[in-house]
Amino acid sequence: MAEREGSPGAGRLLAGTAWLVLLLGLWLWGREVTDLRPGTSAPTTGDIAAVGRPPEVRLPPALRPLGGARPQRVDIPSMGVQAPVVARGLDGRGAIDPPPFDQPGVVGWYAAGAEPGAAGAALMVAHVDTETRPAVFYRLSAVRPGDTVRVARDDGTVAEFTVDDVQVLPRDRFDARQAYGVRKPGRAELRLITCGGTFDRADGSYTANVVVSAYLTGSGP
């Protein structure tokens, strides 16, 4: 999400509105939701656009879910991202508490949800930019199906995910089931989420969310 540095009021508003939409999906944790629509193309930040699955991409089979372990780092080679992961919960208003605004290079994991690599859909959220520079998920919408996401876990293992869908979901038509529901029963899945669309200065938030979906396809030390 975006934080406008030096503008405390804007930051508070973003915390209460830009992230509030994530609450709509919390009840889906652990549920197995199938027959979801593919992603749609839409403008995001800058000149980057998100797409759904190109028909020519061949995706690997899913790996059986791993045991539970907390994430420590997320690596996204196609973005050049290697970022620390911190556990986050809900803030005083009941919204997901994002990484601190002064740590734009940190990714937050919703610790009350699934652990990355375990069965279910694990949620990771991070800022797209600050008032002065891009943040860790600035190029999230440039990720494509077939790309790899690796999550280093505190049991010494690395869970490797393959991206199978990239969506831009407008806030005024946000579908929580589409964003957070488990795509296929029994899989270990991952969601990477940040802001997208355009920045509305009138209400201090972005108009959409970028949602990257991935599923477990490998593991190693």
TrEMBL record:
A GO molecular-function descriptor: hydrolase activity
Where is the chain membrane-spanning? 12-30
Where would one find the signal peptide in this protein? none
**UniProt xrefs under InterPro entries:** Sortase (IPR005754), Sortase_dom-sf (IPR023365), Sortase_F (IPR042001)
UniProt keyword annotation of Chaperone present = no
The segment annotated Disordered runs over 40-62
Enumerate the UniProt keywords alphabetically: Hydrolase, Membrane, Transmembrane, Transmembrane helix
Determine if Transmembrane is one of this entry's keywords.
yes
Q: What is this protein called?
A: Class F sortase
